[in-house]
């Protein structure tokens, strides 16, 4: 599948939590209106569908934190621009035993694809498999995995990595927001800042402030609003 192209016009910049919005100091600017979408797939899908039905937007960008499933490719403090987002929230089983909704649906039923392509942000040019610096921040492109419950251990995160080896970052809203955007025919981009290793429950090893600082520095350039 080819990646969707963003359209000119007003854009909706989505962030899951007030903490992320405040640390990023996000305010409306240029073509972008900032909106909280809520935490988790249900809240995010409902709020984004509501916003897109009440006001026309040409593009959406979802930003926020995520946990790395591969610290070599997505280290703490780096950013991952989503190339696609996988459903790991709705299905049967968990991690390496997970069966997604698309494989479970009865014959003839129509369900959203288990993996949905994402648009490239205006300021991002695909760089293949490598990492490049934007405003001093390491940024790379890769797949994202949307979960309803984050990995509780490194072993569990490793099981997910075996099931979906392309997924670099575990997060909680992307696929649901992508379904809402698909229904409204609005392209979606996602940028996640890596704050921790997926499955590591010891918060003293997390770097939320550093990850959000990196996202804040690079975001204007990723949105095509940088100098």
Keywords:
single chain; 227 residues; alpha/beta; Rossmann fold; 5-stranded mixed β-barrel; 6 helices; globular
Q: Total helix count? A: 6
Uncertain segments of ≥5 residues (pLDDT<50)? none
CATH topology name:
Rossmann fold
Strand content: 25-35%
Please identify the top-level CATH class: Alpha Beta
Can you describe what's shown?
This protein is an alpha/beta fold and 227 residues long. It has one domain: Nucleoside phosphorylase domain (Rossmann fold), CATH 3.40.50.1580. It is built from six helices and eleven strands. The chain has helices spanning 18-24, 41-54, 101-104, 154-163, 174-184, 208-222, and strands at 11-15, 32-36, 59-68, 79-87, 91-92, 99-100, 115-117, 131-134, 137-146, 167-171, 188-197. The strands form two sheets. It has a five-stranded mixed barrel. Strands 5-6 form a two-stranded antiparallel ribbon. A hairpin with a 2-residue loop joins strand 8 (131-134) and strand 9 (137-146). Helix 2 (41-54) packs parallel to helix 5 (174-184). It is globular and about 45 Å long. 44% of the residues are buried. The mean pLDDT is 92.
